[in-house]
Amino acid sequence: MYKELLCFYFIVLVSLATLFSESNATTDKIDVIALNGLFKALNNASQLKGWKLDGGDPCGDVWTGIACSGSSVTHLRVPQLNLSGYLGQLDNLNNLRHLDLSSNYIGGEIPYGLPPNVTHMDLSNNKFTGDLPKSFGSLTNLTELFLENNNFTGSVIYLAELPLNYLNLEGNHFSGRIPRQFQSIPNLWFWGNRFDTAAMYPPWNFPLDNVPHEQNISSPPSSQQSAMVDYPSSEASETKKKQLSPLRISFVVVGVALVAVCVAVVFAIHIKRSNAKRLRSLDSSNSTLHSHPISPSIDLSTAAQTASPPFLEISSPFNLVPRRNPPVLLTNTEKTSRRKSFAGENKFVMNSKVYTVAELQLATNSFSEENHLGEGSLGPVYKAEFPNGQFFAVKVINMVSLSFDEEEKFMD
After folding, report:
1. What is the spatial distance between Cα 384 and Cα 343, in angstroms, rounded to a whole number?
2. Neighbours of 282 (CB within 10 A)
3. Cα distance between residue 93 and residue 265, in whole Å
4. Which region holds residue 154: left if phi is over 0, alpha if psi is between -120 and 50, else beta?
5. What pairs with residue 176 in β-bridges?
6. Separation between Cα atoms, residue 118 and residue 99, nearest integer Å
7. What are the GO cellular component annotations (predicted)?
8. What does the alpha-carbon distance between residue 69 and residue 124 come to, in Å, rounded to a whole number?
9. pLDDT tens for residues 363-406?
């Protein structure tokens, strides 16, 4: 009898323990039904281990991505599982706080029924389309919302009154005006949309146009100054248009061509002047003297009465210094030239001879004033008396004062 009583108590205790454990592990049926519907909407994905189309115990069993608090589902995290399909109604998940379906291939529109107490929602990097449902406005606990890189359209006005700390709307097709309330969101991204800013740009406290794009794209911003819009500033746009203007490009090309021509002309003039200076230096260092005697027996008095004395032309921009070497006679080349005398035109056959500066200084008494006959068009003229009794008129030509054309004519 005693043994039978002990056995009875043992069975009762085991039954009570089993009932208690089952009641402790059983998931709220409303949550189970909601997850069954989501599993069906996601095409019964095999990646969702433990999930069922009907019934089951997400909190008691192991369901991929599900975490619970008591009998309520509080976390649903299934990112990067290559899930496809669409979202079912989620408004029955009353205690769901964290919803992460990011980086999958889920499409369609967001259902009207959303978890009413969710605080974190990440639907980024999927294929969602359509407008945001009005039910977003009732998610009064939502502080973090990530919708980037989808194909959402329409307005974001239903997000204006939410207590958001993080909001990412990048890479969609949202349009309309940007709610003024967005200025209070510390971490905000909305680059790459079609917001209307022409009619009324929001008078926010931080300048969107001056923030570098890299903050908006590569990493979450740390302050209000990191918010970006999907269009460049008007000043930057004008600068870009001006840079791409064909008319401005043509002006630049013509300007460059003119500068090149001017540089070429200046360079050519510089080379010409350098060559002229080089020739003058050579001429001045080798001051050559040519004489053209008229007659071996001519004297100064006769020359003065009948005709001007023949000229010895000296070209030197510097002081005349006697040559140390004996005079060098050129080859006895005879040339016939036509010269005009003051008495009339005569033909003379002349022998050219080279005189040294020392010989000319001796013949003109060092170009003294008493031998100065006058000033010619190219320089002063002096009377020269040589030991053989010949008289010549010596013209000293300053090559520096000659123009380039005059110098070339004289050398010829």
Report:
1. 21
2. 9
3. 85
4. left
5. 195
6. 7
7. membrane
8. 26
9. 888 888 888 888 876 778 888 888 888 887 887 776 656 666 66
pLDDT tens-digit map of 133-159? 999 999 999 999 999 999 999 999 999
Helix (H, G, I), strand (E, B) or coil at 230: coil
Dihedral class, residue 166 (left if φ above 0, else alpha if ψ from -120 to 50, else beta): beta
Query: Coil, helix or strand for 305?
Result: helix
CA–CA gap between residue 200 and residue 198 (Å, rounded): 6
CA distance 412 to 404: 12
Q: Residues 6 or more apart from 254 whose CB is under 8 A from it?
A: none
Neighbours of 311 (CB within 10 A): 17
Domain ranges of the chain: 20-240, 245-284, 287-411
| Cβ neighbourhood burial of 200 (10 Å; 0-12, 13-18, 19+) | exposed
The tokens describing 19, both together, are 């009932």
20-240 belongs to CATH 3.40.50.2300: no
Domain 287-411 sits in CATH at 3.30.200
